[in-house]
Specification:
This protein is an alpha+beta fold and about 290 residues long. The protein folds into two domains: about 100 residues, 2-Layer Sandwich (Phosphorylase Kinase, domain 1), CATH 3.30.200; about 170 residues, Alpha-Beta Complex (Aminoglycoside 3'-phosphotransferase, Chain: A, domain 2), CATH 3.90.1200. It contains ten helices and nine strands. The chain is globular. The two termini are about 25 Å apart.
């Protein structure tokens, strides 16, 4: 089971508040607000809540603060080694309209790692993106985020894991690293694995930014953790790509605690043991 697909059900951004999935189509008023005229069509994949019109992707807003930041702050970084799916302003220079947001649709497809692994390309795109975001201030809205992912991230980095199931307890203890230092924190994209699109002759496209205030090495660790858990990558990939074991261990801890958060909400119980087994195998693959 693909981790991104498993965690994508009910997914919200790092700056979002959990909401029920909304599969309504954007209205004519919404289209006009963003300067669009084409009849919207559903965008395949993801949560099934996004629509495409005239080269623009529209999706329901989960956090106005995040959307304002995406447009006014992140939209100001230069494309250098990547293409960013930038926010589209409304005709009155806002970033949302009646519960909808918009970003430009970029050419490219997600890599098929089963046939042609592209982990190096994803990491290179992430490194370019993180060089561009290195000078950004810490987003204020991150402190108030409340989702499975944001809670699991805080638990993983605080060392206060809360209550975990017996199946995860020993693994969490194995992955915990007292005194962990992966470098200074900055704005990072914490979910690059399935959100880098490749197109021949063009720089990689970065979409669906999930902002965290963490070291870039940690964001790379998440990619490698996903590669090990969900795409059959070998433990040697860490050395091949220059990602430290500590970063991957911290990312596995984050993913494991996210699985716990979902289970606490009654989601994914049928796959809980299988996910734990994947984390165990990945930890063993990196020597933990």
């Amino acid at each position: 089971m693909d981790q991104a697909k498993a965690l994508g059900k009910g997914r919200v951004k790092a700056g979002a508040v959990s909401t029920a999935l909304d599969r309504r189509a954007p209205t004519g008023r919404t289209l006009r607000a963003f300067g669009l005229t084409e009849v919207p069509t559903p965008l395949p994949g993801g949560q099934g809540t996004s629509w495409v019109s005239g080269g623009v992707v529209l999706k329901p807003v989960t956090s106005p603060e995040f959307q304002d930041w995406l447009g006014s702050v992140l939209g100001g970084i230069p494309d250098d080694g990547f293409r960013l799916a930038r926010a589209v302003p409304t005709r009155d220079d806002g970033w949302t309209f009646e519960g909808w947001s918009a970003t430009y649709k970029l050419a490219g497809v997600a890599p098929d790692h089963a046939r042609n692994p592209a982990w190096q390309e994803i990491l290179q795109a992430g490194r370019s993106f993180h060089r561009a975001t290195a000078g950004l201030p810490q987003p204020e809205f991150l402190a108030g985020t409340d989702s499975w992912w944001s809670r699991a991230d805080r638990r993983a980095w605080s060392g206060d894991w809360g209550t975990v199931s017996p199946a995860l307890a020993r693994l969490v203890a194995r992955l915990h690293q007292p005194g962990l230092d992966l470098g200074p924190a900055q704005v990072v994209h914490g979910d690059l694995t399935m959100n880098v699109l490749l197109e021949p002759g063009r720089a990689p496209a970065i979409i669906d930014v999930s902002p965290y205030w963490r070291p870039p090495a940690y964001a790379e660790g998440v990619v490698l953790a996903d590669a090990l858990c969900w795409h059959g990558a070998p433990g040697s990939l860490l050395d091949d790509l220059g990602v430290p074991v500590a970063a991957v261990a911290q990312a596995l801890l984050f993913r494991a605690l996210t699985t716990q958060e979902r289970a606490d909400a009654g989601v994914g119980l049928g796959t809980f043991d299988a996910e734990v087994a994947r984390y165990e195998a990945a930890a063993a693959a990196i020597g933990l």
